[in-house]
Amino acid sequence: MSISKIIVWNGSTLLVQDELEAINNHLVEFIRAETYGDRDLYVSFWNGEEASEPVNMGAIINSELEESSPFLLADTKTLYFASKGHHGYGGYDIYMTTRLDDSWTNWSQPENLGPAVNGNLDDQFFSITHCGNFAIFSKQVSVHNTDIFRIATEDLFGPTVAQQQISRQKVALAGL
Where are the domains of the chain? Predict the structure, then answer.
């Protein structure tokens, strides 16, 4: 499968303009009859003519509440997402999980990114810069105020994990 042929399905289709956009535009969140909770994460693929039926990403990721703002690293295995349903600090928290096979439904247990990112209100829209040195996310700092934050991946994950993430990102981007 070519990454450049992935498409978002959200009731209609959205053609992807480039490969980097494609990496994160084949994941989508919405409500359907077969959801595990209020809003689930799904994946869909473009075969050149049509989008595949969305596939629910499974009960390991999707909880009885809401999941949102998926971000997939270029390695197409490391997923960051926000959830209200996994144990966290409050509201939406940001989690990381790893795809364990090619099914898109078999994931490692989500890991909360901790208090450096998550607070008692809503924290969402996590992404890692193309260079891999920084993570960007939104943090609700009061009921009526959400700000954008940046943290060094080394500060968030530690030097060893940050370097592994950067290496995987660079290798995956080089292969596009």
Answer: 3-174
